[in-house]
Amino acid sequence: MLIKRVFNNNVALTEDLDHTEMVVMGKGLAFQKRPGDEIDTEKIEKTFITPSEGFANKLSELLDEIPYEIMVLAKDIIEMATSELNTELNDSLYLSLADHIHFALTRLKDGIPIKNALMWEVQKFYKDEYQVARKVLELIEARTGQRLPEDESASIALHLFNARQDCSRMEETVKMTAIVGDISDIVKYHYSINFDVESMNYSRFITHLRYFAYRMLRGELNDDQNDMLYEQVKMQYPEAFECSRKVQAYLEREYQMQMTKDELAYFMIHIQRVTSREKS
Fold it and tell me: Signal peptide span per the entry (predicted)?
């Protein structure tokens, strides 16, 4: 296995006899090494195949900022999550997760906590990822001695969800995009408003629509019938209720899907939230 590029003393890009490129990690494995040198395979602690041409450059940028221990931690977290969720996770998660953990630990050190606005959605709709993410916080604490806030569980859970290999099927992605666009248009025309696409409210709304569409296409929608919540929200937000009925009619017509009262209640809440700011 020959070295193609040295990132630092602990990380290098290599190529095997089949010309397969992979990143290898290990304490001191690239110390005083140059491209073309043989790698000492006994020093390799972590290895993974590079998923894209730009991966190596992005990794190089991260290694200038992020300690080696955090990079190893991110790799270990992905291995644990892959086992716990029983699914393959995209290798690109390695970069985004390492960057997120490093930034979260930096914010904690600087006393700058950040709340996750999707905390309750993640807990309710992505229970598996959320439970794994809570274990991730424990692993981070064990390695670094720092306990990240519970809101980070939701953030990490979203990273895990987005990295599922089976999320990237093109046909499903096209349908998801269509559903999100159609529902967004229904809300826009019902209220006769133009969304501020840069706002946090709009971003939160679109995120909810994306996850809803994903779960709908997979047949994983919440089947709870929370009559009390539904009636309360319906009474409090009558216009959002009327708008949600149009969304329901669209889904029944195009996808033969019946929304439960629980799903309708959450739709009303999100519709009210995203439209109230625009109207005001």
Answer: none
Specify the pTM.
Answer: 0.62
CATH number for position 178: 1.10.1790.10
38 forms beta bridges with 2
| 130 shares its domain with 222 | no
Q: 235 exposed, middle or buried (CB, 10 Å; 0-12, 13-18, 19+)?
A: exposed
Taking residue 271's Cβ as centre, other Cβ atoms within 10 Å add up to 25
- Cβ proximity of 122 and 130 under 8 Å: yes
Could you tell me if 175 and 274 lie in one domain? yes
Could you list the residue range(s) of the whole structural domain that residue 238 is in?
169-279
Q: Could you say which of 118, 142, 166 is where a domain stops?
A: 166
Are 220 and 263 a contacting pair, CB within 8 Å?
no
Per-residue pLDDT of the chain (280 residues; tens, 9 = 90+): 888 888 888 888 888 888 888 888 888 888 888 888 888 888 888 777 765 666 777 777 777 788 888 988 998 999 999 999 998 888 778 888 998 999 999 989 988 877 776 787 778 767 889 999 999 999 999 999 999 999 999 889 988 987 875 555 557 767 887 898 899 999 999 999 988 877 777 877 888 888 888 888 888 776 666 688 889 999 999 999 999 999 999 999 999 988 888 888 888 988 998 898 666 5
